Amino acid sequence: MKKDFPLQKVASLVVTAVACAACAPMGSTGYVSATDGTRSISPSYTAGNLSDQYGNDFAIRHTINAVISQGSQNRLSSRAIRLPERPLGEIAVFGYQFPENCGGHEFRVLEAQDTQILEFSYPTSDGDTRMIRDYISGPSPFVQPGLWTAYDHTADSISTMTSQIEQRGAGIFNGVYSQGLVTNLAVVEQRALGSAYRQALNDVYDCGDVQTLADASTQ
């Protein structure tokens, strides 16, 4: 004989669903932290209309792994690197310049607690360098690999970042959530920097696996 589903159970499920309305959606991409081996989850949600154009997940993962395995490692105070939201404790920094046959690009991986950032040193046409920081995981469920989602920024534009509110869901799941800080760079500038970042990632990805990079760096 089929039993009725308890009303208390239904109520419990509804409460749980409402409480998780702002949680990270299914289908998230995981990145393993080099500092403690834990897995940080970045939602597959795309914020804005640019974030899925500038940084392929596979190229980003490949670049992070290469920088961590081939680069130098250092630990810095959280005050040593200016970020939109200062982490507690030290920041682990992995730096690596890829061989010329891989584009000669310079990247760093910054890690602190549940935050992981891929930083690209972009040489400008006037001989300057701009630091482009792509948050891979971080203090907001709207963080996503690829530019320009929550907390992504250039090192010289942190002071102009603004807080953005996002409305999501429908019915009982409808709500207004803080996406976190977002870049205030002009769209034209976002496109130019994003294209440079994407090209650098593609150069590294097309260069081969980590062992190939290691062999190239010794030649």
Structure commentary:
By secondary structure, this protein is an alpha+beta fold. It has one domain. The chain is 25% helix and 28% strand. The protein contains four helices and ten strands. It has helices at 7-19, 57-70, 187-206, 210-217, and strands at 29-32, 39-42, 72-76, 91-97, 106-112, 115-123, 129-137, 153-154, 162-168, 175-182. The strands form three sheets. It has a six-stranded antiparallel β-sheet with strand order 3-4-5-6-7-8, covered by helices on one side. A two-stranded antiparallel sheet has the order 1-2. The chain has a two-stranded antiparallel sheet with strand order 9-10. α2 (57-70) packs across α3 (187-206). The protein is globular, with a radius of gyration of 20 Å. Mean pLDDT is 79; it is low at 1-32 and 38-49.
